[in-house]
Amino acid sequence: MKHFQLILLFSILFILQTKAQDLKKYDKGSYINGKDTISYRILFPEHFDAKQQYPVVFFLHGSGERGHDNAKQLDHGGKLFLKDDLRQKYPAIIIFPQCSEDSFWSNVKFSTDSAGKRNFDFQKGGKPTKAMKALLGMIDNFLEKPYVNHKQVYVGGLSMGGMGTFELLKRKPKTFAAAFSICGGDNIANVDKYKNVPLWIFHGGKDDVVPPVLSTTIANQLKIIGKEVKFTLYPDDNHNSWDSAFAEPTLIPWLFSHQK
């Protein structure tokens, strides 16, 4: 029995070490422009050639991955873009920026009602948060690179990053060819600003952190005005619906199928 336990322990350690080594394929970078500072991890295609142009995907993490370690933002989604078949079929540049602990991607105000339920008050317009302002500068800076295919620039995110995806689309609606938001939300009044960007929205039906209605209202509004939107509700998922979304075999093909 002890022999079996040791084998199991070493197997787990080997898997964890292998995963950590894989994530090291994401290079570290940072954008600094005056007071605007943001760190990021970047994955270049295999056999990267700076003379060619590649699609770019910006991925926005959730609130639990905020910080200054330039590592935690890879916890959810980092391994998705490391799959060999996807890297071979869709060579692209993948960027994971990291939001600082004292900021938030989206321009939203929080409150708690008498029952302890958290409410989200998404703003219409207004100045970007500190993190979003730095992110906007970083994106503009990166898109100046000669190896970027401007017809294939994408954004996606989960939870706070799903909210940040809508926020980014609102502020740069002409930049992105398509986007996906997982367990996020936005003010329905902002939909008109990014109505022409193809969207795939995901949410868990039992999400007790970010209410599913925050996604359904956006999806329904886009459908009402006749714009391209896919909406997937996982009835039994709680907040971690990103696990189900990442397992969707058509997510990445759908994303890269869109060009401006």
UniProtKB/TrEMBL annotation:
<dbReference type="InterPro" id="IPR029058">
    <property type="entry name" value="AB_hydrolase_fold"/>
</dbReference>
<dbReference type="Pfam" id="PF02230">
    <property type="entry name" value="Abhydrolase_2"/>
</dbReference>
<keyword id="KW-0732">Signal</keyword>
<dbReference type="InterPro" id="IPR050955">
    <property type="entry name" value="Plant_Biomass_Hydrol_Est"/>
</dbReference>
<feature type="domain" description="Phospholipase/carboxylesterase/thioesterase">
    <location>
        <begin position="51"/>
        <end position="245"/>
    </location>
</feature>
<dbReference type="InterPro" id="IPR003140">
    <property type="entry name" value="PLipase/COase/thioEstase"/>
</dbReference>
<protein>
    <submittedName>
        <fullName>Putative peptidase</fullName>
    </submittedName>
</protein>
<dbReference type="GO" id="GO:0016787">
    <property type="term" value="F:hydrolase activity"/>
</dbReference>
<feature type="signal peptide">
    <location>
        <begin position="1"/>
        <end position="20"/>
    </location>
</feature>
